[in-house]
Amino acid sequence: MKRWLSKSLKHKLSLLLLIAIVLPLLATGAVSYNIATSATEEKAKQSGMNTLRQIADKLEFVIQDVENMSLFILGQREVQAYLDNDREDVARYTLNVGFLTNLAFSKKYISNITIKSANGYPPLSNTTVLYSGLPEVLRNHEDIYRSSTKWWTPLYENRTTEGLKKVVSLVRPIRNVNNFKPLGELSISLDEAEIARYLKESGWEAKGFVLLLDANNRILSGGESGWLNRPVTEPFPEIGAMPEASGVLNYGQGDGQKTILYYTLPSLNWKLVGFIPTEIYTAQNGYVLTVTAVAVGISLLLAAGLVLYFIQWVTRPLTRMTQTMKDINPDEPIPTYEVKSSDEVGLLLHSYNKLSDRIQRLKEQVQLNEAKKKEADILALQAQINPHFLYNTLSSIHWMALMNQDRQIAEMVGALSDFLRFSLNKGEEFCPVQQEIAHAQNYAYVQSIRFPGQFELEVYIDPAMLQTPMLKLLLQPLIENSLIHGIQKKQQPGFVYVHGELSGARMKFVVEDTGVGIEADKLREIRRQLAWTGNGAPAAKTSYGLRNVHQRLLLHYGSEAGLAIDSEPGKGTRVSFSIPVLEEPA
């Protein structure tokens, strides 16, 4: 060994550099392994606590959303009117059930919203509850419930048309907003299955699990189904107290040892309790040991190879000079040679894949989810005039005409008064078919006096649908459109026919005239304008009446209820629509 070292400077440098690199590398690997193994558990705890905070944020959002929703419902005018009415109101019942259904439609975590009346009226609910465990829960906790303006129940069961559901509910009394008289009780139920989904999809350790406890440490969600609504000390008798807002506990021994993390939801004092088996740390430590050993081994090989290469590269000029000096002729000039050397610094190129992926995800997450819902402005006249002043003035004109024995003027003024009264109608959007027909006939009567002998209106309506509710102000704009664009452009008198028939669960209406009709190109343009959805280039405006009726039909009844227009030049135009029957005739 000594002889091998003494023969070559390259050998000496190689051995010394290898020793100088190997010893620190081995020491660094040992220290890194010790640090990594001791930090594994702490990192797992930090990661678990961050996961609990994320779950808590999601649950806090749900809780706050439910409480805000309850305040919104308590102040609803129609809910107050239904509960405070001196008799059952079927129309308000239907309206409020639809309101609750729309309110809960997009919120998967809401199992049901139920409003019970203190007067014994049918309860309002977005779903049919066949059996509810809420009354028993309220009896068992009556003192707490009666002394609170809002109270979250323990876990209980509801049986609905969708099956058996475990729920936890926000319950609060409903009072009259004016005199605080008790009107009933509101309960908004959270679906335990949806809460359990939040816990399972939170990214927790695959071999662990998360529990949600109420303020009394009873299990609300998570874990095995048999644990629900039981104290956490039954499945885990040695769990110990959790007095702080958050913390870490050790549970069990040996293979069953677990680390317990808990975090308290500030608003309700509920606790999220996460269980991490200790075997996860052992497996991670083994993995760290393997990775460390492989990394150190590869590093040793790379270091040895690089040391030998660099020493060879450094000593090569000296070796060449030695060989040159051996062969030098003392009688000749000493030759010169050029030694070229440069330091190579490896450039570390950082990948921007993560940043690119992040930008792509942000692009994919930005989705246009905007529902456009516009109500046509059919009450423009109401914003400009005083209805009571108008009614009183028309009434005065009506009586003056009667006193002057001018019956035609009196009837015209009376028809105009009825026409305007129905148009305003205190903002109501629906009316019986019979009232809609009467409104159209009042309009036609006024127009017949203005344009005597120019047209006749004939109405054919199925008597079975006269009391069925429908969206108001649908027929009158179509009759007006027939008069202005059809009959008045014709030299001789014409007819306007209004048909209404009941076909199963739908009502079909047709307004047909014998006017001048519509040219084929213009008819195509009108249909295109009515079919325009608001995307792309805007359509040129067509008849206000047609567009107004078409938009309101789509808004209230869906895409199957739009206007259908057929016309033949010189013979007339036919406009029809079909709407569902909202309610059986009274």
UniProtKB/TrEMBL annotation:
It is a multi-pass membrane protein. Residues 352-379 form a coiled coil. It is found in: Cell membrane. Gene3D superfamilies: 6.10.340.10, Histidine kinase-like ATPase, C-terminal domain, PAS domain. Residues 312-364 form the HAMP domain. Its main location: membrane. GO terms for molecular function: protein histidine kinase activity. InterPro entries: Bact_2-comp_sensor_kinase (IPR050640), dCache_1 (IPR033479), HAMP_dom (IPR003660), HATPase_C_sf (IPR036890), HATPase_dom (IPR003594), Sig_transdc_His_kin_internal (IPR010559). This is Sensor histidine kinase. It is an enzyme of class 2 (transferase). PANTHER family: SENSOR HISTIDINE KINASE YPDA (PTHR34220). The keyword Cell inner membrane does not apply. Its EC number is 2.7.13.3. Keywords: Cell membrane, Coiled coil, Kinase, Membrane, Phosphoprotein, Transferase, Transmembrane, Transmembrane helix. It holds the Pfam family HATPase_c. The chain crosses the membrane at residues 287-311. Signal peptide: none annotated.
